[in-house]
Specification:
The complex is a heterodimer of chains A (120) and B (768). Chain A is built from four helices and no strands. In chain A, helix 3 packs across helix 4. Chain B contains 30 helices and 18 strands. In chain B, strands 1, 2, 3, 4, 5, 6, 7, 8, 9 and 10 form a ten-stranded antiparallel sheet that branches. Chain B has a two-stranded antiparallel sheet with strand order 11-12. Chain B is globular, with a radius of gyration of 30 Å. The termini of chain B are far apart. Classes of the chains: A mainly alpha (120), B alpha+beta (768). At the A-B interface, helix 3 of A face helix 10 of B.
Chain lengths: 120, 768
């Protein structure tokens, strides 16, 4: 069953402004308002938050991995459990929007083999 | 200046130069020795057997956990025989072999007993002391039976029972090599590898086994005064202390009311373990391991006693991607992406007490195939899973584990009985690549009617390019096709592939394929790559890299100094590093031996001894390599050195006897065979060799007795049956000769010489 790409993208694009708001609210305190990993909480954390503008790193991570991390938290990715999961705070659509927002921050896509995967 | 003074000065200068040159020569040829092992600091905190109390000691305070555990597969993993623990029929229905009948029965006083009635033998009764397993496993569950022996060992009997097929079977691996086979009237008792019983409960180097995981705190020790064994265990179940460590201190504190006042509760909490620490609790049993040091008990540091990575160096039990090639356990989880790039531990899916299934947050799940085990970490797949699976949501193919953790038959078991375990490498189905490896693809579990190409086409149409395997894994798959050593270096000797298990396998394979002992030169790229790997934080990786360097260039002084420094600077890791380094070199030697490259085998063993000169096992293997290459003098000397360190090695005594026989010293050879039998009275080869020696000396009656004992202890030893037939023939016992020759022919049906010998005997017997 293939999604209608225009509708899908339009929906997600419509969310991206909200994605920016969501990022500012939930992500920026650690990851920085620009996504560079230098949020105001960062100095108090035992590990450096991921730099979402690092295209070299972000291009190694497929979209579903970004989705899973936002939803379930850093622990499941063998990263710091200081990053909570937002699966009970955000809707699936909102998380998909944040993934799209992250792609904008790094100006990159995921690995080539992952680019035709769709997250329902 | 007066001439005499000039001459004196010149002479002094020349002498000085000569002295300096001599000193330099001496320094340049002085041996560079590895630092000797430091003696272990005595510790009174390491547990002893007396520190383990059994699960019942936990039940009062931890009733809920105890209740859950009691109903779990660990809690029902085994026990003393009873109607509730035994799943096999002990109703007197005979187990019919071609040459024997075995009757499982319950005696009037309640003992579970096997009575073995073999041809021309007195019946032997084995009372079951313990049962192992209960047929619990979904992929194929079995039950084995232990009996006590006069030497103090508990040994597995060859008659196992499998629940799903509801039949008796035995393991033919060391005999006819057909894996696990149902017992039928076509099967000879000698076809069963555990007949006569030799697989002891517990780990002892005099027996080729490692069986302490089929119970709790199983220990076996050899009394050198009585030549008897002392077998101790706390339980045939897998008890609380198997995971939590010894309970004595904790229980004492609890009973003394000290727990609330003490920060030390007398037991390590398992709740706050790191990923690897958590996995090691399970890998005590659920992983292939090489023994570094005997005497492990829960609560002791696992890495001091076992290596999890080095088993890959020998018989290669795993495929390059970690799936099981011969026989292995769930330790191959260390190949999974969920481990390498995630935080996944065993208890993320398996409740440690009930062995029920749960999601990563600890929420119980209704059954073993529930997607919640996966979607709790992969919520992107939780909704509309058919988008990812391309199978209807409620179908078998729609489950995560159907594709990613299929039940794969353990190859070494063969194909006659189902003994499959879910694939803990959590692989991505790649039909074509799986087929090249020889792995049964997940798709074919349901779609056996489709060709590999059809399956590959389906997968590619759904997913396009598949997520590639890690470069080091791809490299392992391509080992046989590398065009040159530098390509292999770039692929296999990557500095940090983020995959310790594959890195151990890669360095091991590289060494085996491209390195030789004492190479005159090694390419700089190889040298630098191996030294980079030798800086790994993983002890197994570090050790195998150092072993490879030592093997190839250990005789080069500069390299040797650097190797010595590597060991010197290992600090608290030195003992573990050395033990692994020795093991790796020993395995290189074993591999050369398999290829009958005895000079290289000897070189590898000698290098292992440079690190630890008193390793009796390495000396033994060096002696065997010398024996195999025909150097009987060196073999005898080396085997004596091994026996001077550990006089209780039956295999060393046996081969010393062989060496001495070849050197013409029959008296000493006989002593060596007798010594073997003092330690292992059931050693069939020792009886056989002794028989041959006695026969050569004209002591035919004694030889006959030795041959009879040889075939009693190993009825598959057809050469012993033949020798016995010859003895009977010379004594005029044609009937006995024919019977023995028939047994030889049954064990060696394809040997024309044996068949011809039997025909002549039968013809002679018929003529009378």
């Amino acid at each position: 069953m293939s999604p209608d790409p225009v509708t899908e993208n339009a929906e997600i694009l419509a969310m991206s402004r909200d994605a920016g708001t969501l990022y500012a609210r939930f992500c920026a305190p650690c990851h920085g308002s620009d996504g560079d990993g230098a949020g105001f909480n960062a100095g108090a954390l035992p590990v450096q938050p991921t730099d979402h503008t690092d295209s070299a790193h972000m291009s190694t991570r497929p979209d579903d991995s970004l989705y899973d991390t936002i939803h379930a938290g850093g622990y499941i990715m063998n990263m710091s459990n200081r990053m909570p999961g937002f699966g009970y705070t955000l809707t699936r659509t909102e998380i998909r929007g944040l993934v799209k927002y992250l792609r904008g921050l790094c100006e990159c896509d995921g690995p080539g083999w992952s680019r035709n995967q769709r997250i329902p | 200046m007066p001439p005499a003074r000039s001459f004196a000065i010149a002479t002094g200068v020349l002498l000085g130069i000569a002295g300096a040159m001599a000193l330099a020569r001496w320094v340049g040829t002085r041996p560079i020795d590895f630092p000797p092992p430091r003696p272990d600091a005595a510790s009174d905190t390491l547990p002893t057997h007396a520190d383990f109390l059994g699960s019942e000691a936990c039940s009062d305070c931890h009733a809920a956990q105890y209740r859950e555990w009691s109903g779990s597969t660990h809690g029902k993993a085994g026990g003393t025989p009873s109607l509730s623990t035994v799943i096999a029929p002990f109703d007197g229905t005979p187990i019919q072999f071609a040459d024997a009948v075995v009757i499982p029965t319950i005696t009037p006083d309640g003992r579970f007993r096997f009575v073995v009635e073999a041809e021309a033998e007195e019946p032997i009764a084995f009372d079951v002391a313990g049962v192992v397993g209960g047929g619990h496993m979904a992929g194929g569950g079995t039950q084995g039976f232990l009996a006590g022996f006069a030497d103090g060992t508990l040994r597995f009997l060859p008659f196992d029972f499998i629940r799903q097929e509801d039949l008796w079977f035995c393991n033919s691996a060391t005999r006819t090599n057909e894996g696990w086979i149902p017992i039928t009237p076509d099967v000879s008792l000698a076809d069963c590898g555990d007949w006569p019983p030799i697989r002891v409960f517990g780990t002892d180097r005099r027996f080729a086994n490692c069986q302490e995981c089929h119970g709790s705190q199983v220990e076996i020790s050899f009394d050198t005064a009585t030549f008897r064994y002392d077998t101790r265990l706390v339980s045939y179940t897998i008890n609380c202390e198997s995971c939590h460590g010894p309970g004595r201190r904790h229980v004492e504190q609890a009973r003394n009311g000290q727990l609330s006042r003490e920060s030390d509760i007398g037991m390590r909490s398992l709740a706050g373990l790191s990923k690897d620490e958590s996995l090691e609790v399970c890998f005590q049993c659920h992983a292939l391991k090489d023994v570094l040091e005997p005497g492990y008990l829960p609560g002791k540091p696992l890495e001091q006693h076992y290596s999890l990575g080095l088993p890959q160096l020998g018989e290669q039990p795993l495929f390059p991607d970690g799936r099981v090639r011969t026989f292995a356990y769930q330790g191959n989880h260390r190949y999974s992406d969920c481990y390498l790039n995630g935080s996944m531990t065993c208890t993320d899916c398996h409740d440690p007490h009930s062995q029920g299934y749960r999601d990563v947050w600890g929420n119980p799940l209704p059954e073993r195939f529930d997607d919640g085990q996966c979607t709790s970490c992969h919520p992107s797949k939780a909704t509309q899973p058919e988008v990812h699976t391309h199978h209807p949501a409620e179908s078998a193919g729609g489950r995560c584990v159907s594709c990613h953790m299929p039940y794969l038959q353990q190859p070494e078991v063969g194909s006659q009985l189902r003994y499959a375990r879910s694939d803990h490498t959590i692989a991505i189905p790649r039909p074509a690549a799986d087929d090249r490896l020889g792995v049964d693809n997940a798709c074919r579990q349901c779609h056996a009617e489709q060709s590999v190409q059809e399956l590959q086409d389906s997968v590619e149409s759904w997913f396009g390019d598949l997520k590639p395997a890690k470069p080091i894994v791809r490299g392992l798959e391509q080992v046989a096709t590398f065009p040159d050593v530098l390509t292999a270096t770039r692929t296999l000797l990557r500095p940090d592939p983020g995959h310790p298990m594959a890195q151990v396998a890669a360095v091991g394979l590289f060494a085996q394929r491209f390195l030789r002992p004492d190479m005159p030169l090694m390419e700089p790229q190889i040298t630098s790559a191996l030294w980079r790997i030798a800086g790994s934080s993983d002890l197994d990786v570090r050790a195998v890299a150092l072993a490879a360097i030592h093997l190839a260039r250990g005789s080069d002084r500069r390299t040797r100094r650097r190797l010595v420094r590597a060991l010197d600077r290992a600090g608290s890791d030195a003992a573990g590093l050395r033990a692994r380094w020795v093991l790796a070199l020993g395995t290189f030697g074993d591999n050369y031996g398999v290829a009958a490259d005895w000079p290289s085998a000897r070189a590898a063993y000698l290098k292992a001894l440079e690190l630890q000169s008193n390793r009796a096992g390495v000396l033994r293997n060096l002696g065997l390599a010398s024996l195999s290459s025909g150097d009987n003098v060196t073999a005898a000397t080396t085997l004596r050195r091994s026996l001077a360190i550990d006089p209780y090695q039956p295999f060393s005594w046996l081969n010393l006897g062989v060496a001495l026989e070849r050197l013409g010293d029959g008296v000493a050879a006989e002593e060596a065979y007798v010594r073997t039998l003092e330690i292992r009275p059931d050693h069939a080869l020792a009886h056989f060799n002794l028989g041959n020696l006695l026969y050569a000396q004209g002591r035919s009656d004694e030889a006959t007795g030795a041959y009879q004992r040889a075939v009693r202890y190993d009825p598959s030893l057809y050469q012993a049956h033949l020798a016995l037939a010859r003895s009977f023939l010379e004594q005029g016992d044609l009937t006995g000769a024919v019977a023995a020759a028939r047994k030889a022919a049954r064990q060696a049906p394809d040997d024309p010489g044996v068949g011809e010998f039997l025909r002549r005997l039968e013809a002679a017997a018929g003529a009378r």
